[in-house]
UniProtKB/TrEMBL annotation:
This is ERAP1-like C-terminal domain-containing protein. It comes from Daphnia pulex (Water flea). Pfam families: ERAP1_C. Belongs to the peptidase M1 family. Residues 1-83, 85-240 form the ERAP1-like C-terminal domain. InterPro entries: ERAP1-like_C_dom, Peptidase_M1_aminopeptidases.
């Protein structure tokens, strides 16, 4: 309701003097949700401005680099702070380079991934490659995940799809990809991973059209979703909750932001 979000948004303005992990963790979790709901709306610019105003003092305080003997909670707080200022935080530096870069940066990461024999490095590179803000690069990455000669390992196919689906720009691209390439995807993706994919895809679905398409997808593929029915139902429930949030809170949040900024 109005009181809930107006109170929360007002309280968040007093966090700039707070350095304790617990209140920040609660606030940042709420900010991430609101951000995911509003990222494709006209009010998102004001929301980003609001978040930057709150978080910049914290960011200046905790800095970018971990210090020797540092408290674990401070390390966790830094990661959360940076992730809001630089969305899609994963391998912070690599992610930001690809997010803001072009095909050259993405190809560089791909070549590094193909050449690497270190699992942890490959994980960071794959995750970073999914940070791109270019829809065509995300679509290319999805196509490559199913192509055995693309350089992306077969065992990484599901992970690539999950990572692209976790990018706010990549969610709908991934949903289209799942529907178009259903047969091929089911050959390489287990039920466990498919459950994670459908959850990632639908996590920020918040329009009537998206909800309708998700329900239609379940109806059309019901027999083939055996083993992933629960995850699909949870995704539909999440989309319903998101749609309700938009109906009840979106305009109130925008009105508040317009008054403050």
């Amino acid at each position: 309701g109005l009181l809930d979000y107006e109170t929360a948004l007002n309280l968040a303005r007093y966090l700039e003097h707070e350095t304790d992990y617990v209140p920040w963790n609660a606030a940042l979790t709420g900010m991430n949700y609101i951000s995911s709901m509003m990222s494709r709306t006209s009010g998102y610019g004001l929301l980003k401005k609001h978040f930057r105003t709150i978080i910049t003092p914290l960011y200046n305080l905790v800095g970018f680099d971990q210090k020797v003997g540092e408290d674990l909670l401070l390390t966790k707080l830094r990661t959360k702070a940076v992730s809001i200022i630089s969305p899609n935080l994963k391998g912070i530096v690599a992610c930001t380079a690809i997010e803001k870069g072009d095909e050259a940066e993405w190809e560089f990461a791909l070549n590094r991934y193909m050449a690497s024999n270190v699992a942890s490095e490959r994980d960071v590179l794959l995750t970073s490659m999914s940070c791109s803000e270019k829809p065509w690069i995300l679509a290319k990455m999805l196509e490559m995940s199913l192509n055995p000669t693309s350089g992306i390992r077969k065992q990484d196919a599901a992970r690539v799809i999950i990572q692209v689906a976790s990018n706010s720009l990549g969610r709908y691209i991934t949903f289209n990809f799942i529907r178009e390439k259903w047969t091929e995807i089911r050959k390489v993706v287990s039920n466990k991973f498919f459950s994670r994919i459908i959850k990632a895809v639908a996590s920020s679905f918040n329009t009537e059209l998206e909800l309708k398409e998700l329900i239609q997808f379940r109806e059309e593929r019901s027999e083939e979703l055996i083993g992933a029915e629960r995850a699909t139902q949870q995704a539909i429930d999440r989309a319903k909750n998101n749609l309700n949030w938009m109906r009840q809170n979106y305009q109130k949040v925008v009105d508040w932001l317009q008054r403050v900024y």
